[in-house]
Amino acid sequence: MASNLEQLLRRLNLPYAICPVEPVSDEAVEAYRRWIAEGRQAGMAYLEKYDAVRANPELLLPGARSMLIVAFPYRSEAEIELPIALYARGRDYHDVVREYLNPILAEIPGDSRICVDSAPLRERYWAAKAGLGQIGLNNQLFVPGFGSYCFIATVLTTTQLPPYRPFEFQNADPCGECRRCIDACPGKCIPADGSAIDARSCISYITIEHRGPLPAGLRLRSIYGCDVCQQVCPLNRDIKPTHIPEFAPSDAIKTLTLAKIGNMTQESFSAIFRGSPIKRTKLTGLLRNLNQLATK
Ligand code: SF4
Ligand code: SF4
Questions:
Q1: How far is the CA of 199 from the centre of ligand 1 (A)?
Q2: Neighbouring-strand partners of residue 16
Q3: Which element (helix H / strand E) includes 153?
């Protein structure tokens, strides 16, 4: 690997892996197709598209030879009053990750492309295959040292980089006998057989991606997202917080209250959540969630 690239990766001080570009295994492709056929993607119609691309990353970047996969830990220990998912408290990860990875991209010859939740790429599958972490029953990737509180970003490149496997795992199954996330999940949507969760009743999906009214009678604990299956997980004990300042709660988020959100105008929503992932749910979605927040 070019030494400049190695230095930059070391300076980033983030867990990463490098693996060759190849087709996704038949087993994983079939499992994904079954998940779609059963309608478990709920209203996320974009997940039904680009089946062939999802099964072969080379179709995302013609001539792609290697994938550099980087974990960006996001869990900040700063306390805030607002009940929102941990990942959404700082700046939008799509922007932050690109800012960190662009200098890396500049050091790689040939064509390259950054994917961060922005392309039909099986990010967790590749991260696990490359040895960056292991996938638990809650479908999250657990990265040693940081647990599941990580964004996964991938640089696809036409340059062949030497493979790099950062971790070797003793047990193929990280969960063992544990079933805590299944029992604690408020949507009861984590299958015990290790297959993908049913987004139709996942509170994270419902509060962020779902458009329209919430299911009648649903009482929420959070107005944006859900961390329950990560919070109860023993694999998330004794992990380090993020050292990425952009993921610490913004001043706007720190001082925001439910009462202030209840009185928000479109103008103030746009100003406060500019550059925040929370803008995804739009003001109507946030107010809808607020109205179904459990009072105790
Ligand atoms: S995010 Fe919440 S609702 Fe969704 S699977 Fe995890 S615990 Fe269940
Ligand atoms: S809570 Fe238990 S079963 Fe669920 S992902 Fe964590 S270790 Fe696995």
A1: 9
A2: 70
A3: strand 150-157
